[in-house]
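Collaborator request, handled under Task 6.
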Amino acid sequence: VVALELPIDDSKRISQYFKIVGDLERIGDHATNVASQAKQIHQNGKGFSKEASQEVEEMKLMSKNILELLEIHEDTDIEAMLKKVADLEEEMDQKTRLYSLNQLIRLKSKSCTLENSALFTDMLSDFERIGDHGLNIANAFCQIKAHIN
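Structure tokens returned to the collaborator:
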């Protein structure tokens, strides 16, 4: 077997690309989970309350915004992109905590079913994890840029 010796910076960049691929795969897994949960909600005929639906929409939009920020072009300011992704991911963490509390209040007041509450909580978790993986990708892009210069 012939071993290929790569310069350290090349090895570090390749390692970061593998991390990005892994995070993209996880994002796909979480997106699949959200789709499955949405299908279950549709099939059981007992949709979310207006408030819960708005909260899910907001988490969906923030996830989409993070993924759009990760579209890298030649003129992309990587550090500025990382800051925007980090800020958005932190906001997602805060919203996840707030929306989880809101859901507990809805459950306690019996304005939602136990099944929908579990689905809602799972969806929040999946959206929050999409944000985490997006931040991992943004950090990896910064590491790649550091090893290019």
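The cover message to the collaborator said: "The helical segments are 8-44, 50-69, 78-108, 114-148. Residues 8-44 form the longest helix (37 residues). Please let us know whether this matches your experimental observations."
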